[in-house]
Amino acid sequence: TGLGLCIKLKQAGLEPILQMTGRDRNRMAIMGDMLAAAGFGIDTMLALTGDHPVVGDCKDAKPVYDLDSVGILKLLGNMEKNGTDCGGNALSSTPKFCKGAAVTPVYDPLFLQINKLKKKVDAGAEFVQTQGIFTVEALETFMNEVAAAGIDVPIMAGIIPLKAAGMARYMNENIPGIEVPQAMIDRLAAAAEEGKEKGVKGLPMAAGIDMAAELIAEIK
């Protein structure tokens, strides 16, 4: 979630997770946004390298990539340890963030993600949020590899409620690390057809929420 929305969520009494991507900002901008977030009482962040703009909506945007996710974690860790900003200037007060990182469980070869995850944890990640997963088997395979690598960090499974079959197909084709099973796509398409026959709106979205709830129950 971006800084502006995080502030709104905080003001509403919720606990937002600020997403910070190296794709969009250099280290000075990252530090500035994190200090601004701290000023509003936001103390949880997710460090992301960020997908290249060519796979997004603004394909002509120029990426920054001054720091990747590991670099962002190290930047904040150094700030907390030394009480200085990225230029070495002393801070009047040093905010402490609960730092998180992301991982992609559906990846070939998987050991590359495991190695990257270890680097993120070694750089200070205190929790991990996965890319969207759609089968228990995919998560189980990943978690077994995490355990085998001796990585001990809380991991949150990424759950994405699907709105329509078209959304699922688009994600499969355009978002790295996403694999929506054909059975889910067929269920969404069937719900859309049923809604069309009955003149009822919202059936695909309802089916998507049901599938997300079923997956959460299976994971538990």
Describe the overall structure.
There is one protein chain. With 220 residues, the chain is of the alpha/beta class. It has helices at 3-11, 27-39, 69-82, 110-122, 136-148, 165-174, 182-198, 203-219, and strands spanning 18-21, 44-48, 98-103, 127-132, 155-158. The chain has a five-stranded parallel beta sheet, covered by helices on one side. Strand 2, helix 3 (69-82) and strand 3 (98-103) form a beta-alpha-beta unit. It is globular, with a radius of gyration of 19 Å. 24% of the residues are buried. The model has no long low-confidence stretch (mean pLDDT 95).
Distance between the termini: 25 Å
Q: List the strand order in the largest sheet.
A: 1-2-3-4-5
Helical segment count: 8
Strand content: 5-15%
What is the H/E order? HEHEHEHEHEHHH
Query: Major sheet, described briefly?
Result: 5 strands, parallel
Low-confidence runs (pLDDT<50, min 5 residues)? none
The overall average pLDDT, rounded, is 95
Kindly summarize this structure in a few lines.
The protein has helices at residues 3-11, 27-39, 69-82, 110-122, 136-148, 165-174, 182-198, 203-219; strands at residues 18-21, 44-48, 98-103, 127-132, 155-158. The chain is α/β, with parallel strands linked by helices. The model has no long low-confidence stretch (mean pLDDT 95).
Give the helix/strand layout.
Blueprint: H1 3-11, E1 18-21, H2 27-39, E2 44-48, H3 69-82, E3 98-103, H4 110-122, E4 127-132, H5 136-148, E5 155-158, H6 165-174, H7 182-198, H8 203-219
Parallel strand pairs: 1-2, 2-3, 3-4, 4-5
